[in-house]
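TL;DR need structure tokens for one chain.
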Amino acid sequence: MFEIGNSLREARIRQGLDFPELEQATKIRGKYLRALEQEEFEQLPGPTYVKGFLRSFAEYLGLDGQLYVDEYNSRFLVGEDELPARPRRSSARRPEQRRIESNVVLPALAGIAAVTLLVFVAWRFGGSSDKQPIPNPRASVSKQHKKAARPRKPHKSASAAAPAKAHLVLTATSGDCWLEVHKGGANGKMVYAGTLQPGSRPLHFTAKRLWIIAGAPQNLTVKLNGALRAFPHGDPSIVLVSPTTIQRAPAAA
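>> reply
TL;DR here they are.
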């Protein structure tokens, strides 16, 4: 035998819990939790509530809820569940009584059945000719299921696919830079040869591949497909430009 209330109180204090927190967690009103700790079980609506709340309270504190219910049953419900059985009424009835009951019950059942049938017929065939269709819940559920089941097409990001061509923009910012630009390679078509100066308009080139000689690449600001890129330094600097890279190249590429 152990003290139900003291055991619950010690477990609660040991875990640093207060009644508002327990009320929120167990959904049991704080005054009932206090009554359980004080063993004032008469404050609860009845034994069924006491046992249910006692089990939930104890298990939330990490205790054996059934042990507390058993202790409550043994200490506070002794003899209450063993109520004297009510004497059974004799099933033997007089034949006359049975005949009277049959004569009353059968016509009553027949009358109820007739009224029910009339109500059904009136509902089925009576009323306005403009009958409202009865919605089929299965149809709406099926439509919602089909809508939800349709796989969404993956969104294609514009940056996911690599560009097909290199769009190169060269600007002289720190000084003059002599340039020679060919499409394809060193033996490809020359599209520019000259000196790019600060303040002059930027040069734009678009091709699958560019071959470039730069006399002073440190003076250039370079953008490849909209992104700032570093131009390899050298004296001179010879590079190959693709849609994604700018890298050094041999003199005859």
